[in-house]
Amino acid sequence: MVKSDYMKQMIFLLCVVFICCTENKPLEKNKEKTETSESEKIQVLNLGSFHFGDTTDAHKTEFDESTEAAHQEIRTISKLLARFRPTIICIENLPEYNTEINAAYQEYLKNPINLNSKYGESSMIGFEIGRLSQVDSIYGIDNYMGYNYSVGDFIENSADLKNAVDPATYLQLTNEPFKEFPALAKREANSDNLSLLEKFKLINEPVYLDYSITTNADKLLYVGIESGFEGADNAALFYHRNMKIYTNLNRIPMTKEDRVFIIMGTAHTAFLREFINRSPKFEMVNTLEYLNN
What we know:
Radius of gyration: 24 Å
Oligomer: single chain
Largest sheet: 5 strands, parallel
Number of helices: 13
Number of strands: 5
Shape: globular
Distance between the termini: 58 Å
Order of helices and strands: HEHEHHHEHHHHHHEHEH
Helix content: 40-55%
């Protein structure tokens, strides 16, 4: 009986040792990977935003940025994001306007009592985070290219034209984009009633960022007249625009000690996420972690 108890204890101890060794190895590996990547890559906080004020975008989010309550919400969110401590701030504006933008930014630094709304979310959030982080300059990295994101709707609604590619998939992506994600669909349907912070949390969800690419470009790959590529041709233009945006980001002189904050429309944010994920130069932090109080 004593011998049996002894054997049971030995087996138990061996199991514990095996489990501990097995569980610890991946943790140590992950820890080493994190430490290495943080020391070798430039950290990026890549924030997706809807456009404040008037916009030509197909999708508009209800938000009155002129109220005092809105300004308080923006300052609260800016403070949360400023914990990232960026040294470089990039906004959705053309590089050719950098001199004008930075003149406005310097004026804001002198008198930050009122948020600068001239450039929408780019100045209201970007300038305030710059002030809190003591950043010297703001960089525009946008690039404009015209494309027709409504070509699919035009074909589907035309009595004379027929979508000869895959109208069923196109219409599902148009009418039920979150069909496989009911919880996200419910949040999206209620988005106009969310606080500004909750709106930002919603549109920076990975699934929502994927949707931003799909609704702006990828769903057009299911559209075409006869043997044509009307949808694909327009989607390619949007892909091309975002490639140029990423190139503009890479034009900015920076070192491994820099920390980059980017605020752009969600579709651009989503494309930048794809490029950065494959980059030997950059590493993204988790945006949603910085949006938590």
